[in-house]
Design a protein that fits this description.
By secondary structure, this protein is of the alpha/beta class. Helix content is about 50%, strand content about 15%. Helix 9 packs antiparallel against helix 10. The chain binds uridine-5'-diphosphate (UDP) and magnesium ion (MG). Uridine-5'-diphosphate (UDP) binds next to strand 1 and helix 3.
Length: about 300
């Protein structure tokens, strides 16, 4: 029987003390019958991540690395790994061991059962900070309210995809990547498995608050133009209300003595409408800005150094 090859894709940004441990843990948990290939993507690390990877490579020929010219972000690092994977299936997981390697056999089993995508969903009970859980819940509620593609709340970037899905994903070259949304959008036979995230092995989280906000904005604007439509509807409602109020103002000026004391309501409505206009302009600007940046068709990432033979 031909042995199947599993590609393990790991984005790593300043994870010098994690990559070697992760490699060992994954090796321990992958069932015997599979060949493996590891693709570590060094996302512009400033610490010894690349050195650690080179050392790992010396002892283990199945280890490959791709090193970016700067920090291009987690999603682009994932894409680079998937673009270069050659396995029959590709498993992506974080470098910090929060995605439990003990679950690998379960993912592979589901793949053998015929699923093209096996993704995991975080089970946060009694885990994670209150703030992160709350913002994550709010984020998924908003994305699912606004978008036609449903993304399961808590879906993580710990997943197995078949070679075919990986190839299709590689054809997508949009700059603002939200891979879990794209996976949901792509279809295929999908299965979800719940997991309890482990503790970060070493180092601190690489997702700062501002990175999280940016990621959320991409998630929302990549899959829906509903915010534009909502702006339009809000504009209509306000314009109609303003018109009604205008008629009332004319009536009041002509037939009553109420006209002058109306300063308070006047200023309130001017400010309100002004505020709404700015908000709508902001929404339009967000999409326009994205179109502008997307139209440049810049590559998702730039590779500075790699030990892979084929690059792109
Ligand atoms: N990561 C990356 N580039 C970045 C930020 C993060 O490659 O700009 C990697 C990081 O090294 C880790 C994974 O993405 O392997 C998830 O990041 P992290 O564990 O810091 O996020 P958290 O688990 O706190 O959400
Ligand atoms: Mg983590």
């Amino acid at each position: 029987m031909v042995r199947k090859k599993v590609s393990i894709v790991v984005p790593a940004f300043n994870e010098e003390l994690n990559v070697t441990v992760l490699y060992a843990e994954v090796k321990k948990n992958i069932p015997e019958q599979y060949d493996t290939e590891f693709i570590f993507v060094d996302d512009g690390s400033k610490d010894g991540t690349l050195i650690a990877l080179k050392e790992l490579k010396e002892k283990n020929p199945e280890v490959f690395f791709i090193s970016f010219s700067r920090n291009f972000g987690h999603q682009n690092a994932l894409k680079a790994g998937i673009d270069h994977a050659t396995g029959d299936c590709v498993i992506s997981m974080d470098a910090d061991l929060q995605h439990p390697p003990a679950m690998l056999p379960q993912l592979l089993e589901a793949w053998e059962d015929g699923y093209d995508v096996v993704y995991t969903v975080r089970n946060d009970k009694g885990n994670g900070t209150f703030f992160k859980n709350l913002t994550s819940r709010m984020f998924y509620r908003m994305v699912n309210m606004l978008s036609t593609t449903r993304i399961e709340p808590g879906a993580a970037d710990f997943r197995l995809i078949s070679k075919q899905v990986a190839q299709e994903l590689s054809r997508i070259t949009e700059n603002y990547l939200f891979i879990r949304g794209l996976i949901a959008w792509m279809g295929f036979l999908q299965k979800s498995i719940s997991y309890k995230p482990g503790k970060r092995h070493s180092g601190k989280t690489k997702y700062s608050f501002s990175k999280m906000v940016r990621f959320a904005a991409i998630g929302i604007t990549s899959f829906s133009v509903k915010p534009l439509r909502i702006s339009l509807i809000a504009g209509f409602i306000i314009a109609l209300t303003a018109m009604g109020y205008g008629f009332y103002a004319i009536y009041a000026a002509l037939f009553t003595t109420l006209a002058l004391p109306g300063w308070g309501s006047l200023i309130a409505s001017v400010l309100f409408i002004g505020g709404i206009q700015l908000m709508v302009l902001g929404v339009i600007g967000e999409y326009l800005g994205k179109m502008f940046l997307e139209s440049k068709r810049r590559p998702n990432y730039i590779i500075k150094e790699t030990n892979l033979e084929k690059t792109q």
